[in-house]
Structure formats: structure tokens, C-alpha cells
Design brief:
- The chain is of the alpha/beta class.
- The protein contains 3 helices and 9 strands, in the order βββββαβαβαββ.
Length: 166
């Protein structure tokens, strides 16, 4: 049984050891990149179980108990179409023209596939957009997560919980 969705798998950077191949996780990403795509990191690859855009997932509603969302943190004029550097190749990029709408659409879609009583975790890095600016785009408020105003804390984690049906 698969009850966990990683909707932005990438190179599985956030996953620990053997969990990178856990049977109960569906690893999804809209891209695939074979090993050797980055000369400087020949073992890096993107190999999702399901190739899908997190804004339009091929799963039925209420399919997962836990959803992991680690969207691209880079915002560029062309988004994924203009990816050039190592960081953008590894982690992707959002389009400057549509990043707010894309994050809202992604969150709505992830919320749709999350079961009532389920949890959605979201990771964000303030490299190009502040976390508060990102949270302002989302229709739900995190239950808990990073809420510090320290300037040296760039990576944020938020946890959203979908209430169970009455």
C-alpha cells in the first residue's frame, strides 16, 4: 500500500537512506534526468515512479495520508524552460510571471489528493522569495513550522493538517 506522496521528488535530497526506495512512497516529478546529466555530479539523477506535474496529478482524491512538497525555490523569467546552472538543474525553477498561481494550483492539487486527517509538509528556501510571501499565496495556514524572523534561517518547513471528516 502506498500512503505517502513526494510530489517533487527531484534527486530525493530530503529522504534518508533506505527511505529513498520505500515501497510505501510514490515518488512523482514532472521531469526525469538520467545519471550524468550534471557533469560535476555524475551520480545525480531524477527517476520518479510517476512522471506528473504537481499542479495536475493523476491520482484520485483522498489517496494519501502524507504528502511531501518541496517545490523549486528559484524564480526565473523562463522557469524550467530556461534552466542552466547546477542549482536550477537539480532543484528546478518557477516562472517569475506565474510563480504565485503555480504554487496555489499545486497546493490545491496536493490538498485534493490528501486524505482527511492527513498531513502535508512543505519545504521552502527564502533564496528568491520570502516564506511569508509564499504562505500568503496558499489557501491554508500551517498548523506549525518555521516561524522565525532570523535572517540566517533560509530554509523553512511547514506542516499542514487536513481535518478529518466529521
Amino acid at each position: 500500500m502506498t500512503d505517502v506522496l513526494d510530489a517533487t521528488t527531484g534527486g530525493k535530497h530530503i529522504w534518508h537512506g533506505d527511505s529513498k526506495d520505500a515501497d510505501r512512497v510514490v515518488f512523482a516529478d514532472r521531469r526525469a534526468a538520467p545519471e550524468g546529466t550534471i557533469d560535476e555530479q555524475p551520480n545525480w539523477s531524477v527517476a520518479p515512479d510517476v512522471r506528473a506535474d504537481y499542479r495536475e496529478l493523476p491520482f484520485t482524491s483522498s489517496s494519501f495520508d502524507l504528502v511531501c512538497f518541496d517545490p523549486p525555490h528559484r524564480v526565473t523569467d523562463g522557469g524550467m524552460e530556461t534552466v542552466t546552472g547546477i542549482i536550477e538543474t537539480k532543484y528546478g525553477a518557477l516562472r517569475a510571471e506565474t510563480w504565485q498561481a503555480d504554487l496555489r494550483a499545486a497546493f490545491d492539487e496536493l490538498w485534493r489528493v490528501l486524505r482527511p486527517g492527513g498531513t502535508l509538509t512543505m519545504k521552502w528556501n527564502d533564496a528568491m522569495r520570502e516564506g511569508g510571501e509564499v504562505l500568503d499565496q496558499l489557501p491554508e495556514t500551517p498548523l506549525y513550522g518555521t516561524n522565525t524572523a532570523k535572517t540566517d534561517t533560509k530554509t523553512k518547513w511547514w506542516v499542514f493538517h487536513k481535518e478529518a471528516d466529521p
